[in-house]
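Hey, can you fold this?
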Amino acid sequence: MHWLWVMLVGAAIGAFAGAIVSPERSFGWIGHILAGLIGACLGEVLIGPMGPEFAGMAVFPAVIGSLVVVLMMVTLMYWARAR
């Protein structure tokens, strides 16, 4: 049951980051889950656990890390289309 909460929180954080960085483009629910989970791990490694935790993820570093991951995804997609 824990992994279900982790994936739901990861999807919510990834969708939030996607809406901020690229509101006109969606990566689908799998892309949002991956961006949220990878961003949460990246954020906690770089920033550390700070702020409230939900489903084992520190919320503020997870959002910041997800923003970075989604920004990288958007940039890579832009470069791929430009070529």
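Oh, and this one too while you're at it.
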Amino acid sequence: MRGPAAAENPPGPPNAVDRVDYTGAVYGSLLAASVVAGAGWAESFSRLRLVLLLLGTGVVFWAAHVFAHVFGERIADPALSREKIWRDLVAEWPIVKAAVPPALAVAVSPLLGLGPEGTLWLALCVAIAGQVGWATVAALRAGATGRLVLVAGAANLLLGLLVVLLKGALQH
């Protein structure tokens, strides 16, 4: 996966459009939604624990993606450099960044007067909105037609709604 933080291209014309891969941000948002849905299983939960779980899971998956990519590159190119490893670290960082908005939603939920159930739903909606938003931005930046942009957004909304359906079906 590559992410918004890895917007650097090989040298090209000064007006070349940056090629950015939003895969990590989309994936990280779906991962955050899954974490929130899974947290709903607990009889009670601490907001702090959920914030830490969201951010910690993002970091663990980020590290796993970097590790897999670095070893994949190592097989293809035994002369793997620190610069290549650094690029992988940066490129995968959107997986972690995608966990921040749902974690912030959990953190501010008491200010909104939300109880545990409302907090979970807010964080889940924020994660899904991030997923749909990143997918839509990716399609737009790739120059997709209006129809394809709608398909990308709708497909990601469907994936997010599947998480919501699973949450609802398995908790009641």
